[in-house]
Amino acid sequence: MVELMSEPSMPSLSPAPQRSVAELVARAREGEARAVARLITLVESGAAALPEIAATLAPTAGGAIVVGLTGSPGVGKSTTTNELVRAFRAAGKRVAVLAIDPSSPYTGGAILGDRIRMQDHATDPGVYIRSMSSRGHLGGLSAATPAAVRVLAGVGFDVVLVETVGVGQAEVEIASLADTTLVLLAPGMGDAIQAVKAGILEIADIFVINKADRDGVEATHRDIQGMIALGGSDRGPGDWRPRVVKAVAARAEGIDGIVAAIEEHRAWLVDTDQLTVRRRRRAAAEIEALALGQLRARFAELPGEGLAALADKVVAGSLDPYAAATQLLDELV
Fold it and tell me: Using one digit for the tens of pLDDT, what is the confidence trace for 225-275?
């Protein structure tokens, strides 16, 4: 199912409706798209029921294959995602897509155009596609993306595809979220040079040279292989060497090769226990982010001078930032 509209008018659950949360999760696990949508809406809105939802989903939240797709605008991320959905569905897998769209810095709104490009799967009950606004969050993802991935995995999707905003070299956050990260490139767009730059080369488990029917594809392929070879000094025996796959997603060419590379990487992750390592790192980052969020909320509720008063003292020169931070923490303790 493709969501064409978000659900801002949908009433949220009350803070402690144990039966309602359990029922909502059960309906989502049975494949009801509206229940899945409601759960993710609760995630995005920071509803009070989130801890209960997370606790309900925890036993089954680690079963999905999480694949991230990133790359510059225009390389064909949405088209490739669309074809990967088709390939995984042909293999009998239940597939979810989170497409992160850039949001307006003024209104917070987003075009959410990726859902429009994936209408082929609108009537397939085994597919769920949701666009999420980045809402100014850097790194190519939305702040709610990790929790949304956990929800989708927890309600029984076999594969979760996460497509980033696609705004350039800063999109390395996807590597901390995905089990397998695809970096998409295209001939003639300068992407081979972008791949040299810090971050992009390191996060790619698989390079996909899309639009491989264009001139310059062989040069792009050589450049990427050269960059992988240059980075090989950091790899030890048995370490993963990024694969390079050519595709023309608009014609569904090369998609089988991408799926095969994903499955090969998955097998390597399991055989080397790197899947556990990556997921432990992901869980640690999520816990840290949640803890820091709770700390910020508590700072605002402190009965003492508070952050604003301490900031005034720093501006006046009567207190330095380090002493102010220590005082703020002391008040919290």
Answer: 888 887 766 778 889 999 999 999 999 999 999 999 999 999 999 999 999
Q: Based on the number of CB atoms within 10 Å of its own CB, is 15 exposed (0-12), middle (13-18) or buried (19 or more)?
A: exposed
Task: Kindly state the tokens that stand for 185.
Answer: 């490139």
d(CA 162, CA 177): 9
The closest of 60, 128, 61, 119 to 88, measured between CA atoms, is 128
Which is nearest to 140 in space by CA: 201, 195, 181, 179?
A: 181
- Is 218:192 a contact under the CB 8 Å cutoff? no
Structural contact between residues 89 and 127, judged by C-beta atoms closer than 8 angstroms: yes
148: enclosing H helix or E strand: helix 145-154
- The pTM score is 0.82
Element (H, E) at 118: none
Tokens of 154: 């927890």
> Residue written as tokens 């606004």?
133
Calpha distance 96→153 (Å, rounded): 9
Cβ atoms of 55 and 18 closer than 8 Å? no
